């Protein structure tokens, strides 16, 4: 029998805020254990949470970037469970009235664009981290209270690769929006994977297995690639699947059961009485909307269609936003966008990387690249001359026209002096001249070289070739 | 004797340099030494710290600081054992917190310090504010100064007993379902529960977050007005505190009750009110009329659901609020083989019976499959009760009711019957559910034995000033507030 895989993802990512969700402690990775803590994020007796406005703004901005609805009423709830890394033994989250609902993410997959629906994106607090030593365990609460966004997808994903591409697209969107740095190494993004299989054509969903707390996208892909055949084999061999939570063992490359439905937590959600419900007004929402940015996929599609540049070039400008911005300014009103893209990608980007500088620090304006391409296309300078002009631009700034003037890089294309150099070259080198006349076309290159030498590189090689051919044939 | 002064009496003497703060503080300590062995209001006292604060207040007074700027300058005030003050315990009369010392000052403590108060002593209470008699304290009950065989009420029983025994010039308690007003009534002092959001809850160990409110207990209404003014106001650390102006409660006192419309809620005058309480209450109503008040009988049809609603909402919130006492980060830990058994051992041995009962009840009403039937319904009932108040306040300025159906009961009398104990709060509970303000003050005594009887006024949201004016007018026209327990 043929099976279809159904996957939904719950993606947690830490918001890029200065302070934690409910107190003033730094939201900072890598500090000594329990140094970024205070009575509030340690859950001391008598403390109260006060929501971080910036985190609320970033949550709503995420909603807009994921095409979500932003309700005018949202609230916080307590999710009750006992665990040493949960300082209050409940986590403040959003249960039945989240800050954003029903959106979607479009992303490239295979040859086309796929859409995954987003159930909701809500805000909650991160928990601490348990550390186990030889004789005892410790809890580091630096992470406790860090604002955490949970993005829940509908079960629209159909394969491990699709899940992988969705996660990467989501990550790009969050980085683009300034929502999160999404630094996987620092545990800023974590995933729960809900996965089931069903006979192809069947409407009803199969028994769901949840794989908890994955912290790499490749791990997610491997876990799905392990779990799908496991489920299918179980069904094929006449077994039944149970709804359960499983753990991914990255070293062994297998999933193993953590707890079944019967032992699932009853989180006993209740409305958080310490925080008033959120009722964002139009002015507040408008302020958030003013920070909406163009999403990676839309940007790529726009670059390809507006500037007629290849998809690979557009990818560079999607991956490097400042460089893309520079390109857009350079290309304004230009005829040869592809050439400008080449200069920006091949020359400018390379030099920026070499010198470790950024687009903001450049000593010349984007228009200079447009001018440079313009004078090369016009034949005013050779492309080799162009390299020289660019080097000078990058080093000291200025304008290409002025640099060409100052360095005497202009090509000679007019007859007159150029004719004279060509005649001299033919007269001084009768052998190659005859060879050409006798049909050895390549012989012209030697003569060309002589002319370039005589002109000290200033002659326009294309015009030189044409002139020599004319003189030799005539 | 110094300890017999009211708060305002003391500040007058301090301002006139007739007494020092140290003398006042020492007078409290002497009084405590003399009577607290019988009353047992105080769980602990940091005497050196108290006298040090008094000396600092004297220095400030000598420097020319005034009570106009710092209304409590040099006044010894005591705190219920659930306020967090830096370096001081906050046991909540529970064993589970062990030798915990608060690492921070809560907002009320900070504001009282800013107002110049000398904060001393930890006052006994029902464990985690759960109870109506202080019999649920893990450290033994407090006794009613009017009759040591009887309870002082609760949960702020230590607060009321300390004021009635004249061991401090005022105390700060919390009121979740009547925990300030009920003991105030039973001990014959004034107890004020402000509107929810009036006083910051930051630094107050939570029982039921949507119901808890901080308030004063004092000998007279004026003193409650002074303390309320010092504690009130918006706090950026408490997002449920409300950013409205704080009136000058003391300056607005005075006047009579002419034109004041008082509502008499029919549903509060139930059978089963103690006859002497009923008689004292009826006399108080007449007294108010004599002072110019119009009495209107009003109906609050959802009153009967108050106690049931309260015990669902309060226990649900408490079950989450008390989860943090798990032995991991602070307090007493009783080890186990794994985290789960550590939790069971720590909480099993650390919490008392009533606290466990309420945690279990709260856990149950939030459980999957029961939430809609209990918690959600209770929230709806709460909305109806709130609406009752909104409706009556369209026609009357305040409500007048007995505070408690009966005077102080004997210790042990209701310990085997939690439901009877819960009914002690029947007249005070709906005010917390509605989030409005209320005050209890003495309105007479029973004859044999002589026990105080409390009168309750319930006011409009953020109508503390009017409420205090009404209570003050009644108080000044009657002799009850001048009576003191003979110890």
In short:
Chain A has 474 residues and is α+β, with helices and mostly antiparallel strands. Helix content of chain A is 39%, strand content 19%.
Please supply descriptive tags for the structure shown above.
heterodimer; A: 474 residues; alpha+beta; Arc Repressor Mutant, subunit A; 3 domains; eight-stranded mixed β-sheet; 15 helices; 19% strand; B: 487 residues; alpha/beta; Amidase signature (AS) enzymes; eleven-stranded mixed β-sheet
Task: Please write the string of helix (H) and strand (E) elements of chain A.
Answer: EHEEEEEEEHEEHEEEHHHHHHHHHHHH
User: Nearest-angstrom radius of gyration of chain A?
Assistant: 32 Å
Largest sheet of chain A: 8 strands, mixed
Oligomer: heterodimer
Number of domains of chain A: 3
> What's the Cα radius of gyration of chain B?
21 Å
Class by SSE composition of chain B: alpha/beta
Strand content of chain A: 15-25%
| Biggest sheet record of chain B | 11 strands, mixed
CATH architecture of the largest domain in chain B: Alpha-Beta Complex
Q: What is the highest CATH level, the class of the largest domain in chain B?
A: Alpha Beta
Main interface pair? A-B, 29 and 45 residues
The number of distinct structural domains of chain B comes to 2
Q: What proportion of the residues of chain B is helical, as a percent range? A: 25-40%
**What is the structural class of chain A?**
alpha+beta
Mean pLDDT of chain B: 95
> CATH H level of the largest domain in chain B: which superfamily?
Amidase signature (AS) domain
Record the strand order, biggest sheet of chain B: 1-3-2-4-6-5-10-11-9-7-8
Name the helix and strand elements of chain B from N-terminus to C-terminus, one letter apiece: HHEHEHEHEHEEHEHEHHHHEHHEEH
Tell me, what's the shape of chain A? elongated
